[in-house]
């Protein structure tokens, strides 16, 4: 399976980010707490150029709490100001204001010494499509500023959002990298729905997802669908199709549809709280 695409708006977004970096004090980066490495755009490290960095582990409500903790420690050690948020419910969102202050403490102090008081902090928000950026901004701003949608690539164009007299946010379009050097990264993005489903074969992706979940979280799938435990992914999908009555017109089990169903349930967190990578994986992924 190959994931390769290069939409023009992503190149444009990168250029725009570069231009706007001069104007901002801190970069707030949202990652998906289930894949905090694979959902992090590597371009941003190169572009950041010494700016303060905040990393928000969004959708932590869907991830394995133990692994979330490991990742928070990992990024903290790398110099990020880290927090976990559930933008959908608003959990942890209020703490971000405090984190911004902490991340910009040096700049605020520098300003103060120069006699500049109460200059708003300017933050740029970045994140790959579907990571929950619009939901986070809405929640953070506590008013409808951006549209939320269920398909990648909704946030477009440039916009400044004035939160209060202390903080201004610059939203950026969701950008993904032009090419996935590591197919595992592409695969994990497909699992969580950050790559459009039309770009891959749902059955193949689902079989790999099942293998991973069975290895790391054995028995969870069988428990959720109330099916007997099976070894092979194809058998598991057949059992799900049987249980749910997912059949084609001829009466044959529809495994593609069963795969669709499992991926949707996984994305919605119905199967359990799972993380798809741990910090030790990074050496393998690199
Ligand atoms: P984007 O701007 O980064 O592209 O993403 P967006 O905010 O549109 O969010 C993508 C999906 O992720 C939305 O679901 C949104 O509700 C969900 N989401 C965002 N933050 C969180 C979170 O912290 N936890 C959970 N569980 N979900 C989150 P959707 O299915 O498109 O819409 P909806 O059915 O939830 O309204």
Any key phrases for this structure?
42% helix; Conserved Hypothetical Protein Ylqf, Chain: A, domain 2; Rossmann fold; 12 helices; six-stranded mixed β-sheet; 286 residues; binds guanosine-5',3'-tetraphosphate; alpha/beta
Structure description:
The protein is α/β, with parallel strands linked by helices and 286 residues long. It folds into two domains: 8-171, P-loop containing nucleotide triphosphate hydrolases (Rossmann fold); 201-277, Conserved Hypothetical Protein Ylqf, Chain: A, domain 2 (Orthogonal Bundle). It contains twelve helices and six strands. It has helices spanning 8-20, 43-48, 65-77, 95-103, 105-113, 133-141, 183-192, 202-216, 220-225, 233-244, 255-267, 281-285, and strands at residues 26-32, 52-58, 81-85, 121-126, 159-162, 167-171. It has a six-stranded mixed β-sheet, with helices on both faces. Helix 10 (233-244) crosses helix 11 (255-267). The longest helix has 15 residues, at 202-216. It is elongated and about 75 Å long. Mean pLDDT is 86; it is low at 143-157. The protein binds guanosine-5',3'-tetraphosphate. Guanosine-5',3'-tetraphosphate binds at residues 58-59, 61-62, 86-88, 127, 129-135, 148-150, 152, 154-155, 174.
